[in-house]
Design goal:
single chain, alpha/beta, Rossmann fold, seven-stranded mixed sheet, binds thiamine diphosphate, binds magnesium ion
Amino acid sequence: MAVSLIEAISDRPATDGGLISTARIAAQHGFDAALRFIEEPKNRAEVECALRIRVVENALYDLFGRGKLHGTIHTCIGQEFSGAILGKYLRQHDYVTSNHRCHGHFIGATGNWRGLVDELLGNQHGVCAGIGSSQHLWADNFMSNGQQGGLLPVAAGIALDRKTRVEGGVVISFIGEGTLGEGIVYETLNLDALWDLPHVIVCENNFYSQSTAQAFSVAGTIAERAAGFGVASASANTWDLPAFDRTLKTAIDRARSDRQPTFLVLTTYRLNPHSKGDDQRDRKEVEWFAARDPAKLAIDSFAHFAAKSREFEEEVADYVALAADKPLLSPTHYFPDQRPRFEARAPSVWTAVDSLPGSDLRHVQQLNIHYRDHLETDPNAYFIGEDIADPYGGAFKVAKGLSTAFPTRVRTTPISEAAIVGIGIGLATCGHRSFVEIMFGDFITYAFDQIINNASKFFHMYNRRVDCPIVIRAAMGGRRGYGPTHSQSLERFLIGIDNCCTLSLNSLASPDLQLKRGLALPGPVVLLENKIDYAAKTYVAPCGVTVDVDDAAIPTLRVRFSNATPTVTLIAYGGMARFIADRLIDIFEASDVVFDLIVPISLSPLNLAPIIESVSATGQLVTIEEGPAFGSVGAEIVAQLQERDIGFRARRVGGKEAPIPSPPHLETAALPSIQDICDALIALGKADA
Ligand SMILES: Cc1ncc(C[n+]2csc(CCOP(=O)(O)OP(=O)(O)O)c2C)c(N)n1
Ligand SMILES: [Mg+2]
């Protein structure tokens, strides 16, 4: 069904915001002004930049149409002046983030059109060696990614860095009007305003979101969205170029000098399809705007620009011919070292934990001291989260005293898990180790886009040049009666995230010992603390039981009976580890089985060495975790051991596949019990017989 602006708007008269008139009036009136801008000698560089963008986009579109580009592209034909004028106001430390329609912004910001062409042709000279292609660019303080709105909080994090570390540095982010449907836009606006961030968000309103006319995707008015947050909003369009030039300058100046955000709504129109072959717009409507195309105006009206355009066409065509023969990135360069930092090593060297410095403080106090030390020794580190400011100090008090000691770097935030993780990611890409607290682990789900599409992907997709040392801390686990949305253990979802380390702390040893080198990792870390463990003091092994730690960078702990040979390996982590350790004797007495309890701290990647060592000796394995066994850490361990052809038999014990209920008797029934563990041990024994 063809949906034109006119048809769309006639359906929605109350909310059309005068769409057709806005666009048409902007184009009609602005067109004269465009001429004034174009003929001004001082604007020559910007006009030429717009023509360069046009020529490159035409070339790419042509290649795409002929099947010479892999994947997809979104050209900005008709919208070029947006990127072209941007370049005029950028300074060395400024940063630009963009979206799927990023080519014009990239060329405007960096001038590196050759690197862009190489990138889209997929060769190794591309700005990211051809890995990300059209939508995933990183170079010279420019970053684009393909999920709508997902880079906005990252940009806000970079803006926080620019505000505190870089005199006058600002961040400019581009989104489309269709992206106004994403909640992350509003989380970011809120934080931009609360923290006075030097962040200019340019919302390019081209009236369509893929195939959907604005009347079907945007309610109310666009500019007033920002006003509600107290963020200055401004309007401009890509026809009245002098006004856009002034408006953009004012917005960037406000960020640079006053350290204030601006939301700039830029009315524009794309003349090409969204991507290719996906244009259902009324042709008359497109033609109407094509007749008012400022780039064409420059070419048609000025011999200089016509000549320039031809010159660019030749230059770009020559370059495309050259680029087509350039070498492609080899798979061995892209995949040389899957999980290089955590290679399984054997045999493990074990040390008794009680021979190492211990602590009789509660786990929460030990964590507090641990993070305080981090903030003290690393003046660039940030610690952010909901309700963490003093005197409250966080829901579980891990942050107690930190905001008083480090008031600029320890920041309490609104309830915006996605945005605060995004801000932590932005800070991390600028070299700040950032700790972001998720009050209840269940709510890390809000931040999944940030973790999966940003933090975990940056390093590889930007060709190994963007590290993201964020630590996302979350209070995980049940047994406190908090009920279905505050008790779940989400490890099985987290371990599936590539290039992201999932660590699970326990109270069998001090956090310092468990994290001795863990937080120096260059990539993102999800660090799970356990709600039950917070109140516990470090485990003291009963007589005849020892706790050992191995020598891996992220260690594994082992609890074992001193004078007996284990016949089964138990594996548990997080709060479950302490739950079992506190009941070792009960389990032994009920099952009559001598076992090793192996407690990994890194769940992903898994260090298999100590597990292999134990299971090779026992031949029997029981994994125990609070989350259901389906698709779990236990499932992964069993699969990996199986692939190593160790003869063993296994059982997995996990929680019920149901929301965790609040009443104690039901919650207890939902989570693994000592009886469940004994049953698994006995079942293994029976299978052996
Ligand atoms: C989170 C997310 N949902 C869906 C998509 C698929 N998608 C790519 S572009 C696009 C339309 C974006 O519209 P708008 O923000 O107006 O930008 P424009 O394409 O008009 O420049 C959609 C739905 C996506 N990339 N990200
Ligand atoms: Mg749009």
